[in-house]
TrEMBL record, chain A:
Gene3D superfamilies: 2.40.50.100, Nucleic acid-binding proteins, P-loop containing nucleotide triphosphate hydrolases. Signal peptide: none annotated. Coiled coil: none annotated. It is found in: Cell inner membrane. This is Sugar ABC transporter ATP-binding protein.
């Protein structure tokens, strides 16, 4: 139930090699997030799993069965699209019932399942409305409802929150996480937002130019990024990457230190710098410091750290949390 | 004034105007535009200024509105006027008031009912062929294929051929019982060729007119098809809809508005099919392929009875409005967003 395995999967559009070759195992019940910058092939990968695109090479194995040539509907997967792809002329009820109707289920059973799904998703009062009469969040829930009723072996989400406003996005993020706790079904979720990836995933797959850069739990990726790309992509604000003399002194081409692993002082420290911008968020303060001999450094300080533009501060990186990268951008293990 | 002029004008002009009215609302079209403009361009001005500009705008529009109104009213009024006269071109100078006798003659003429039936048959028959065929052609043309651009232009081509020419081509090249292509095909299979215009005159005309309107329907349907969200089709695919379910549950409802537009616009023009009948059957044999337009023509220019023809024209206008009323009632709701 719901394990998916990609074996040497590749995808070519004409001349362009979108995905050179990917191997990936997704276990039953996992919440897997594909994350990467736009154009990295994460949506294509999802569509390959869904069967909406044909693979150019390799195999897609779902529940131990080779599904490479299976039609999308035969794979037992359900997808939530970025645009929601609701059927505009059908009521919410008929939208949710559509996959069941296509499966030829008897009417009483359909009604029961639709009302169950509507209850779970708080849509009971809206069943007779048309999609255009719903808000963005409600449409999103209808799309999820349409996916749930099929009881698929895995859910596929293609950037489902990108059309929602910020507050609603946080809400829906929670709801989808809760849904995963309830259903315990495999979910594959595509996003370009690393915050969504960090907060929701059991396993994050970081993609770049069609290649998997790293696979791991959110904290694994945070603690030990395998290369510069992952180091720069995961974490907010971004990791400070320092090259030059200081890095060479540490036997590395580039040194990475996260903003939260730098301590600040107004009196003494390793580096002396000038504050260029101070962003006070209340709970935190992000300081952009121009450090002498090192370059611009972002520092995360306590919420009420009262410095402003032009102040001189001293910063000290936590050497034990420092990441070292060689000239190929790969991480140098801490032990070496 | 030549009688041909005003008689033709009164009928064909009023029908499109009715169309404009039912499609977008005659008044609405003009006045919403007029109201939208000042509020956008003169937002900084005072309320008085906008009121002022609005009346100025009305004043400046007046000439064109009056011209259009006169364009419609004068032929219509003259037709109504003539319809109450005993007015025959063979007896010039003998016009006199005739009351409703023109109307009673026209409405009790057995040819009148045949003409109405023929008119409706042409409209319904052509609509059936073009809507179904248009959807099928659109589905076909929507598929990616080699030389798509050229194929699309070729498909649209019949629309550019004028009705008289296309009807003559059909008459002489395809449907001729001796030299026509259809006759040749029938003969090469050992069948008796069909004498199209003698045995099935109305059906032949329906085929010719449908051939002319098929490109229009196809074009509108194709644009509708292309505006369908790709993700919706994919969602239906994921939901397990096969090709037929996808067509009936997703594609067809999406095309409802386009189909409505095709039906409304084509009905307007199909009610007044004329050239195809004139160059092929001349309304015959007998009156088997005479529609209302052709009957009015025959009354005016073959029997020289201007009064009777005018009465017929007015009857046709009334009938067109009845058809429009029911049509808009029936499918007009599809046009609402």
């Amino acid at each position: 139930m719901g394990s998916i395995s990609l074996q040497k999967v590749s995808k070519v559009f004409g001349e362009a090699k979108v995905i050179p070759s990917i191997d990936l195992d997704i276990n039953n019940g996992e919440f897997v997030v594909f994350v990467g910058p736009s154009g990295c092939g994460k949506s294509t990968l999802l569509r390959l799993i869904a069967g909406l695109e044909d693979v150019s090479g390799g195999k897609v194995v779902i529940d131990g069965k080779d599904a490479t040539d299976a039609a999308p509907s035969e794979r037992g997967l359900a997808m939530v699209f970025q645009s929601y792809a609701l059927y505009p002329h059908m009521s919410v009820r008929n939208n949710i019932a559509f996959p069941l109707k296509m499966a030829g289920m008897p009417k009483e059973e359909i009604d029961k399942k639709v009302s169950d799904a509507a209850r779970v998703l708080n849509l009971t009062d809206y069943l007779e409305r048309k999609p255009r009469q719903l808000s963005g969040g409600q449409r999103q829930r209808v799309a999820i409802g349409r996916a749930i009723v099929r009881q698929p072996s895995a859910f596929l989400f293609d950037e489902p929150l990108s059309n929602l406003d910020a507050a609603l996005r946080v809400n829906m993020r929670l709801e989808i996480s809760e849904l995963h706790q309830q259903l315990k079904t495999t979910m594959i979720y595509v996003t370009h937002d690393q915050v969504e990836a960090m907060t929701m995933a059991d396993k994050i797959v970081v993609l770049n130019r069609g290649n998997i850069e790293q696979v791991g739990s959110p904290l694994e990726l945070y603690r030990s990024p395998r290369n510069l790309f992952v180091a720069g992509f995961i974490g907010s604000p971004k990791m400070n990457l320092i090259s030059g003399d200081y890095a060479r002194a540490q036997n590395a081409a580039t040194i990475g230190i996260r903003p939260e692993h730098v301590s600040l002082s107004t009196s003494d420290g390793d580096w002396r710098g000038t504050v260029t911008v101070a962003e006070h968020l209340g709970s935190d303060t992000f300081l952009h410091v121009n450090a002498d001999g090192v370059g611009p450094i972002t520092v995360r300080a306590g919420g009420e750290f009262g410095v402003k533009h032009g102040d001189t501060v001293f910063i000290t990186p936590d050497k034990s949390r420092m990441h070292r990268f060689d000239d190929k951008g790969l991480a140098i293990p801490a032990a070496a | 004034m030549a009688p041909k002029d005003w008689n033709g004008a009164s009928f064909t002009r009023t029908v499109p105007e009715w169309a404009a009215e039912c499609l977008s609302g005659f008044g609405g079209l003009f006045f919403t535009r007029e109201r939208a403009l000042p509020s956008k361009n003169f937002r900084s001005g005072l309320a008085m200024a906008t009121l002022h500009t609005r009346s100025a705008a009305r004043l400046m529009m007046a000439p064109s509105v009056l011209l259009l109104l006169a364009w419609m009213i004068i032929p219509l009024a003259m037709t109504i006027y003539f319809s109450f006269l005993r007015y025959n071109l063979l007896m010039p100078g003998m016009e006199e008031y005739a009351g409703f006798s023109n109307y009673s003659y026209f409405l009790t003429d057995p040819a009148f009912f045949t003409a109405i039936a023929n008119t409706l048959l042409i409209v319904v028959g052509v609509l059936l062929i073009t809507v179904v065929g248009g959807i099928l052609f659109a589905l076909l043309l929507d598929q990616p294929m080699f030389g798509q651009g050229i194929v699309r232009i070729l498909v649209i081509a019949p629309f550019f051929v004028m009705p008289t020419v296309s009807a003559l081509v059909w008459k002489n090249m395809f449907m001729n019982p001796v030299n026509g292509l259809f006759a040749w095909i029938a003969k090469s299979f050992g069948f008796q060729p069909i004498d199209w215009f003698a045995s099935v005159p109305l059906f032949s005309i329906i085929i010719i007119v449908a051939w002319q309107w098929l490109p229009f329907a196809t074009l509108i349907m194709l644009t509708a098809l292309q505006s369908l969200d790709e993700e919706q089709k994919e969602a239906a695919e994921m939901d397990g809809a096969g090709a037929f379910s996808k067509f009936f549950y997703i594609i067809l409802p999406h095309m409802a508005r386009a189909i409505t537009v095709v039906v409304l616009i084509q009905t307007i023009f199909l009610l007044s099919v004329f050239a195809e009948i004139l160059v092929t059957t001349n309304g015959g044999p007998g009156i088997q392929s005479t529609n209302l337009t052709y009957l009015v023509y025959a009354q005016a220019l073959l029997q020289f009875d201007i009064g009777g023809a005018s009465a017929g024209g007015i009857v046709a206008v009334i009938l067109a409005n009845i058809v429009a009323f029911f049509l808009v009632r029936l499918i007009g709701k599809n046009l609402e967003a």
